C-alpha cells in the first residue's frame, strides 16, 4: 500500500520529527508498504478557491494527485492558535471528497499546551469524517515537553504510543483492503 505521511505545516520541525519516527515503525511492520513523507514547505502552495485542479500551478496539481493516489495516511499537524494550520485545511479543500473515502488515517499532532489535543477531536476528526476516512481511534498528541530544546523527540511514552498507533493503523490498512469503495 502507498502510505502518505503528510506534514501539515510549512514551519517548524516537530511534526517532521514525529513523521520520521512513524515512518520507521511502518518499515518494521510485517507487510511491506511504500511510504512517502510530504512536507508542504516543499511545494509552491496556492490558495484553494474552487477552481478545477488543472487550473492550479504544477506543485498544487502534483500535491493533489499525490494525496488522491495514496492508499492510507498519517497526518501530522501542529496546533496554532487553537486550530489546525491553514496550509493543512487548504490541502483538504483541494482534494476530491471521494479521494480519501474508506482509506485509513492516523493522526499525530503537537501543540504548546495539553488542552490543544481537543483540536483533533473538534476540527480534524470532523473533516476526516466528512471524507469518510477510516480514522484510527488512537491519535498521538505531543507538546513541547516531549522534545529537547533542539527539537528531538525525547519522551519514551510518546514513542510507545506512536508504535501502538502504527500497529492499529496497520490493522486498519488490512481492513481497508476488503472494502469495496462506493464510486458515487
Describe the structure.
This protein has 184 residues and is an alpha/beta fold. The protein has a single domain, classed as Rossmann fold, CATH 3.40.50. 38% of the residues lie in helices and 18% in strands. It is built from five helices and six strands. Strands 1, 2, 3, 4, 5 and 6 form a six-stranded parallel beta sheet that branches. α1 crosses α5. The radius of gyration is 16 Å and the shape is globular. Keywords: Flavoprotein, FMN, Oxidoreductase. InterPro entries: Flavoprotein-like_sf (IPR029039), FMN_Rdtase-like_dom (IPR005025), NAD(P)H-dep_FMN_reductase (IPR051814). This is NAD(P)H-dependent oxidoreductase.
In short:
It is built from five helices and six strands, in the order βαβαβαβαββα. The protein has 184 residues and is of the alpha/beta class.
CATH architecture: 3-Layer(aba) Sandwich
Name of the CATH homologous superfamily: Flavodoxin domain
What structural class is derived from the secondary structure elements? alpha/beta
Number of helices: 5
Q: Termini distance?
A: 23 Å
Total beta strands: 6
Roughly what fraction of the amino acids lie in strands?
15-25%
In the CATH hierarchy, the third-tier topology is known as Rossmann fold
Average pLDDT, rounded to a whole number, is 94
Helix fraction bin: 25-40%
**Mind describing the biggest β-sheet?**
6 strands, parallel
Total number of domains: 1
Q: Any idea what the shape is?
A: globular
